[in-house]
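Troubleshooting: if your tokenizer reports a length mismatch, compare against these two reference records.
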Amino acid sequence: MADLDHARAAKSRLRDVLAGHDGIEGVGLAPDGDGYCVQVNIARTVVATDIPADVDGVSVHVHVVGPVRALGRDG
């Protein structure tokens, strides 16, 4: 299990690697057992083939969330 600092460093590295890839909706951290993992939110399953299973020993979990868009003031 990765501690918070290790997971943050892995998240930063993965975010740089995935920058500019179509379909990546977000990169963050999530609890994983007694530690943390990097969570990647993607728009569609096809995008997952470009995402590694781990970064510097930190697990990467992929979630298909669909396209993410900002809501207007009314909704």
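Reference record two:
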Amino acid sequence: MSATTSCRRPARGLFGPRRELGSCPRVRASCPASALILWVGLLAASAPRDLGAATPGAAPAGSAPAIRLITLDPAHFHAALLQREMLPGVDRKAHVYAPLGPDLAAHLTRLAQFNSRREAPTAWELEVHAGADFLARFLSERPGNVVVLSGRNQAKLAHLTQALEAGLHVLADKPWILEPGDLPGLKAALELATKRGLVAYDAMTQRFEVTCRLQRLLVNSPAIFGRPLEGSIEQPAVRMESVHYLVKEVAGAPSLRPAWFFDVRQQGEGLTDVGTHLVDLAQWILFPDQAIDVERDVRVLQAAHWPTTLTLEEFRRATGEREFPACVADSLQAGKLQYMANNEVHYALRGIHVRLLIRWDLAPPPGGRDTELAVFSGSLSRVEVRQGAEQQFTPEVCVIPNSTAQTTELRRALDGLLPALRREVPGLEVVEAPGQFRLAIPPAQRASHEAHFSMLVSAFLDYVRNPGALPAWEQPNLLAKYHVTTRGVALARQTEKPADHKPTHP
């Protein structure tokens, strides 16, 4: 077995010894100077020159009434993406509470890059509170009214609940919980939010993806889709697949993952992590604006999981770490990491059979990227979203008639729905191809993964300003979603590794 190191690097070894830090014109850091001086300098130097002037779309620092952001223990890049743009009515001074370490440093660097980019730079000012007592200080000081959570998932529900108890709204990245035993605590947290008139919102960014929105409209058109089929375990009516890669490059440089990412007790397995989006989309598309009763409407039927095996050299490629950390020591076999990242689950949602496959491989093939597949089967047609090599890794929406005899009638129905589709996506066209119809989406109507976060934050802040506008179905559907993800993983632990789990859509 290889030597192990701690998942959380010691602060002294990374940044040096303690000493006091004076004030900074753009960022105040209540932590050792040697710890954050580099990041303070980056942020101060990168801020736009005219910080005294109001930034379009942002509230001047200290103005009221403003939404004031607190980011708690940011350990995932999604935390920074939520501040990718200046936000209307949001104080540009934000607070960060976190332990001192590389995750905090990475978060500050990302915000510095937003402040220094050439086009539409942001103008965030930060007060950074770094140290082992970050949580106690956050609960004592509470300098804002909205808390952002994104990163280590094991303590996320506890932090979310503490924020609600402190009277703060919460925007939390998925997943909120990893184990079925946390479901009662999740329900209690949602009840607390309702009682106190607070918003606790799950960062379901895929709802803002244009192809998902179009698929939802098509599936709910009786003239195009008919009625949803029930399917079976052998032939599910809904199939969704998501394939991701551990080693990626951004702008020609490797994008490294923190070592703790490979601890499933902290990050979760594939189903409890990225699979959260698939479960959310299944119920959001099939039953729009309807509450799902977890006791009556959901049955988890079958599940399986299996590892992605990493050598030490492959782990180094993914993380930049020299050794396997102590937090994955019990997942090492013969010197290799058995990273339990892959899941399959079959469940019934109001009698409709759903199959989800989530897979993590080491690295994409040359020219390859993440792939997605979503197939919904109705009595008249199938509505598919495919994102693979054939689509040049750009998601596309297709409608496939169940029989060639229905082609003409389906075309007529699509033409009839086109005005509604164009209200959702201006400039959309329906293109006929052999055996199917493709929805041609203008490039200008496509948004990046990063842009989805800006859309999400805008929707969340609208609810913060008017908590009564949060749809009544959000909370029961969130409970149903995490029931599927956590029960699916729990069931998979009782199941032997299946023989083959290659995705339908490579």
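Descriptive notes for reference record two:
- The chain has two domains: 4-151, 207-448+473-492.
- DSSP finds 16 helices and 21 strands in the chain.
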